[in-house]
Design goal:
145 residues; 37% helix; five-stranded parallel beta sheet; single chain; 5 helices; alpha/beta; globular; binds 1,3,4-trihydroxy-5-OXO-cyclohexanecarboxylic acid; Rossmann fold
Length: 145
């Protein structure tokens, strides 16, 4: 079983970006922690980051045919704006879990709305790197169901 983890816009800057909100782990640190947990859970893992919305949409389309059984996505600011990414995710039959490092509900009002919520099984926010790890556990559990 393969799980796809998608990182959206600006998330390549983790470790150098607003450490009060996002901590000091880099994207490579996050991907390494995810790879370790995937091995423990006995699942395959692919990760992808882009700052280009169309590239993200195209990577989601690929997931339809590449054996992806579950998706974990931190879409960054696209979470609050991108109906294009939500529509792409809606094409998939694999379950989608939305994650955020920061507690978006305790931040500015524009972060309280997720346009991805309509296509997500659920969301996990506010636990830093652990949000991703919990998201991976949720995606695996949903895919195994
Ligand atoms: C984020 C929260 C978003 O509101 C923000 O635009 C990000 C990161 C998070 O992981 O907490 O880029 O998705």
């Amino acid at each position: 079983m393969n799980i796809l983890v998608l990182h959206g816009v600006n998330l390549n800057m983790f470790g150098r970006r607003d450490p009060a909100q996002y901590g000091t782990a880099t994207l490579a640190d996050i991907d390494a922690a995810l790879a370790a947990l995937a091995a423990e859970l006995g699942v395959g893992l692919s990760t992808f980051q882009t700052n280009h919305e169309g590239e993200m949409v195209e990577r989601i389309h690929q997931a339809l045919d590449d054996g992806t059984a579950g998706v974990v996505i931190n879409a960054g600011a696209w979470t609050h704006t991108s109906h294009a990414i939500a529509d792409a995710l809606a094409i998939l039959t694999a379950p989608v879990v939305e994650v955020h490092m920061s507690n978006v509900h305790a931040r500015e009002p524009f972060r309280h709305e997720s346009v991805l919520a309509r296509v997500s099984a659920g969301s996990i926010a506010g636990f830093g790197v652990m949000s991703y790890l919990l998201g991976l556990r949720a995606a695996v559990a949903l895919a195994r169901r």
